[in-house]
Design goal:
Elements (H helix, E strand, L loop, with lengths): L4 H36 L3 H20 L5 H25 L1
């Protein structure tokens, strides 16, 4: 356990940062699920709206130290790929 005042302060700061980072990651996961659910339900306009929200959240998380920039790029690419695949399968079934 931290004993010096500076180490105790750093520990407090790290706990606060951990909560902020967890909250941001949770929000990203939530909106990603909403985008996929909207796409699978056939509401592609809502899915595109949620995709834009997710991209903004991911970019903001990568701007700080919450997500690495390559992780952010990978998440955005995978979401776009999944939404496109759902849309194509929906169009093929129709």
């Amino acid at each position: 356990m931290a004993r010096t005042p500076s180490a105790m302060k750093f520990h407090r700061q790290s706990l606060k940062r951990r909560q902020v980072n967890r909250s941001r990651k949770s929000t990203i996961r939530t909106f990603t699920k909403k985008a996929l659910a909207a796409a699978e339900a056939g509401d592609h306009d809502a899915a595109a709206k949620y995709q834009r929200v997710v991209q903004g959240l991911v970019d903001r998380a990568a701007k700080g130290s919450t997500l690495h920039k390559n992780t952010a790029a990978r998440r955005k690419a995978r979401l776009a790929k999944r939404l496109y695949a759902v849309k194509q399968s929906g169009d093929a079934a129709a």
